[in-house]
Design goal:
The protein is of the alpha+beta class and about 160 residues long. The chain is about 40% helix and about 40% strand. The strands form two sheets. A four-stranded antiparallel β-sheet has the order 1-2-3-4, with helices on one face. Strands 5-6-7-8 form a four-stranded antiparallel β-sheet, with helices on one face.
Length: about 160
C-alpha cells in the first residue's frame, strides 16, 4: 500500500508540470494566431495578384494605416515586394531591385541614430511612393521613427524622443 502512495506522489509533480506547460503553449499559440492568419491571407493575395511563387519574408507595418508586405519571387524569377493596405485590400508591387532593401533601411537608421534596439521596419505607401518605416528605441529609452524613400534611400521624415 505504501509503495502505491509513493508512486502517486512521484507522478503528481511531473503531471502538474505538464499541465502548466500545456497551458503556456496554448496561450502562446492563441496569441500568435492573428499574425499567422493575416500572414496566410497576405501570401494568398500576393500569389494571386503578383504571381508570387516563393515567399522569403513577411512584414506587418501597423504605424497608422496597417500595411502587409510579402517579399518573394515571381514565377518569372523576379524578386518583388507585394504591399497590401490591410484596410482596403489595395495591392501595389515593387521590384526589389528598384529600391533599397529592408536591411539597408535598418542599417541607415542604426548609423544615423545609434538606437539601443530596432523595433520594426516595414514597407508602406506614403505620398505616392514606397517608403521604409523604421521604429527604434533610443539609448535613453525613448521611441523614435525614421522614414526612408524606397527608391533613393534618402530620409523623408524622422520623429525622435517620443
Amino acid at each position: 500500500m505504501r509503495s502505491n502512495r509513493m508512486q502517486w506522489r512521484n507522478l503528481v509533480g511531473p503531471a502538474v508540470g505538464l499541465v502548466i506547460l500545456a497551458i503556456i503553449i496554448g496561450a502562446y499559440v492563441r496569441a500568435l494566431s492573428p499574425l499567422y492568419s493575416v500572414r496566410r491571407q497576405a501570401i494568398a493575395i500576393a500569389r494571386k495578384t503578383a504571381n508570387v511563387k516563393q515567399v522569403s519574408n513577411f512584414y506587418w507595418d501597423k504605424e497608422d494605416d496597417s500595411y502587409l508586405t510579402v517579399q518573394g519571387t515571381t514565377s518569372q524569377n523576379q524578386p518583388v515586394y507585394v504591399l497590401i493596405r490591410q484596410k482596403t485590400g489595395k495591392v501595389r508591387v515593387a521590384a526589389q531591385g528598384s529600391g533599397i532593401s529592408r536591411s539597408a533601411a535598418i542599417g541607415q537608421a542604426q548609423t544615423k541614430f545609434a538606437p539601443r534596439k530596432i523595433l520594426n521596419a516595414g514597407l508602406r505607401w506614403r505620398a505616392k511612393k514606397f517608403v521604409w518605416d523604421v521604429g527604434y528605441i533610443t539609448k535613453s529609452g525613448k521611441l523614435g521613427y525614421v522614414t526612408y524613400d524606397f527608391k533613393t534611400g534618402t530620409q523623408v521624415k524622422s520623429i525622435r524622443n517620443l
